[in-house]
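Standup notes
- DV: blocked on the single-chain target, sequence here:
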Amino acid sequence: MSEGPLLHFISSAIAGLCTATAYNPVDVVKSRMQSERKLTTTPPRYRNTLQALVLIARTEGVRGWYKGWLPCWTRIAPHTCVTFLVFEQLRVMTNIQPI
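- DV (later): unblocked, structure below
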């Protein structure tokens, strides 16, 4: 595939896919730890990030880390596509060679 907007679009969509896949477990843990009620008399379910990752994997399997992956990707993919498409078009307009 030759360099151009289509290649940049596909590459940036794949970059967004990789970002969502790597980031989603952290986002799941963050969301669950934030949503725990602090005012109850019961102790919190998650003590720290690592313990939360392990507990989610034990109770729900590794798939539990990827709950909400599709909304995460649909949020990240447009951002990366626009960012890289604009960046590459500006690079072409200013005659800067690709690395």
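- Follow-up: The helical segments are 5-35, 49-60, 69-93.
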